[in-house]
Amino acid sequence: MNVDDLRVLSSDMTANRNMLRYLADLNESLKEVISVLLLFDTATKCLSADKSVSEHLVLPTRHKLIKTLQFRAVHSAIINQMKTRIMKMVDVYFPVSDLHKTALLLDPRLKDNTTLLTSNDCLGAVESLRHLVELVRKDPR
């Protein structure tokens, strides 16, 4: 069944009211699914930039994804369950390294954002930066 068939069915006055209600619910659920997945499309495009550096955007992007995936009472149970599963995948497939924290720290617009970097993260990023500078000093090529 495609979209045109659904439109015809929904406009049929003799159609089963339960079926029409189900179609309306399905349409609303699809909109919610699309809104959640659209954020991932935007994040992928942002972090896959060819002509600009995006390393400093990894932490803010991940933070935005996690914030959006949090449970919301206004969403249906199916959407909240989907968000929970996606959140687990974000933890596995979207890791944050010291290099991401260091890149964030080096961006003047983001370095003081305590939501993205805890004080321990800042200390770790500074230490990581010191280590990188030391490596360059040893082998300046």
Keywords:
141 residues, mainly alpha, elongated, 6 helices
Structure description:
- By secondary structure, this protein is mostly helical.
- It has a domain at 97-141.
- It has six helices and no strands.
- The longest helix has 31 residues, at 17-47.
- It is elongated.
What's the structural blueprint in terms of helices and strands?
Blueprint lengths: L2 H9 L5 H31 L10 H11 L8 H17 L4 H9 L12 H20 L3
Mean pLDDT level: 81
Percentage of residues assigned to helices: 55-70%
Derived from helix and strand composition plus strand pairing, the structural class reads mainly alpha
Low-confidence parts: none
Cα distance spanning the termini? 63 Å
Radius of gyration: 22 Å
Number of distinct helices: 6
Q: What percentage of the residues does DSSP assign to strands (E)?
A: under 5%
The multimeric state of the shown protein is: single chain
Brief synopsis:
69% of the residues lie in helices and 0% in strands. It has helices at residues 3-11, 17-47, 58-68, 77-93, 98-106, 119-138. The model has no long low-confidence stretch (mean pLDDT 81).
